[in-house]
What we know:
This protein is α+β, with helices and mostly antiparallel strands. It has one helix at about 65-90; strands at about 20, 25, 30-35, 35-40, 50-55, 90, 100.
Amino acid sequence: MSSTSSSTAQPPAQHQKPIYFGPFDVTNQVFLQTPHSFALVNLKPLLPGHVLVCPLRPHRRLTDLSPAELTDLFTAVQRVQRMLARHYFHPAPGTSTSSTPTTTGSTPQGGSGTPEEGSFNIALQDGPEAGQTVPHV
């Protein structure tokens, strides 16, 4: 999967039009927008770092996405993973970047966390029986 060079993180003020997650306007919560996807912090997080990555067009099921949307969505997931790793997986103060990472949720102090330094849960609720409460992948 690849991302186009034009996909950059944009602050909410730069959005051209509102972004919806199902019926909810989430424009002000969006911290990443790509040509076909967006990411926002869950308003009711289950764990620290609980983020939603969604297609811009509201699709009910994963199989409804076009190949371009699907590629962009999972590329956005990888970008968000790297962002979360930089925030949560970093060396303890006074250690090198090759030491055991901490997952305290504090701001990194000189570390350059990578996804390989920790673990992630990546889940997709595809349909009501899978726990999907908003009809939007």
